[in-house]
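batch_manifest entry 22 of 60
target: Putative N-acetylmannosamine-6-phosphate 2-epimerase
source organism: Knoellia sinensis KCTC 19936
requested by: lab member K.T.
priority: normal
notes from requester: please return tokens only, no post-processing; we will run our own comparison against the previous entry in this batch. if the run fails, retry once and flag.
--- input ---
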Amino acid sequence: MTRISPELVEALRDGLIVSCQAYPGEPMRSPDTMTRVALAAARGGAVGIRAQGLEDIASIRAAVDLPLIGLWKDGEDDVFITPTLEHAVAVAEAGAHIVALDGTSRRRPDGRSLAETIAAVHGTTGALVMADCSTFDEGIAAAAAGADLVGTTLAGYTAYTIKTDGPDLTLVGQLATRLDVPVVAEGRVHTPGQAAAAIHAGAHAVVVGTAITHPTTITGWFAAAVAQNNITEERS
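--- output ---
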């Protein structure tokens, strides 16, 4: 199987990848809606899309002419982002150019090592692999295991990492300095300034999801600010 051209990864350089995902049970939880969100993101200047679920991936791939990072969230265990080789192959076959999977040191549900999984994805589908990591050591190990991109996606979301206020720019910088593969900044990027800071820290590209594509959370931010202002005025 021929591997996807490195030009696809180069097209992401210094750019914004928009994560188009909605949680189960939400009003926007449908492949058609997420495809429309992805089309809007493309029109706004996104250089890539990140999407979850086989139906969403297939729909977005058919409609949006941008590099597509796909994943499949499944299971209740710690490792739930594309947790097995079977999940990864299905994501690639649904149309993802790049398969995002858990790149942490935690045990994978199917018992395969990260290196075995990445090699099989490369050999079976030709797709690239983005390893979602949470620490510096995991990022180094993921690159050594063959990951084509390393993301800081899970920093602050594992039991052994601390959630920073905003993206973990220190981790981004450390990995970018050390690795030869592209580092993708992801996680808690809530403002344009934070996105720019991630690129400045050395990220090849930056993923923004909630702050662009999750109206429920964005509305909550504004509602909380307005409520707090009302409380402040009542006390003054």
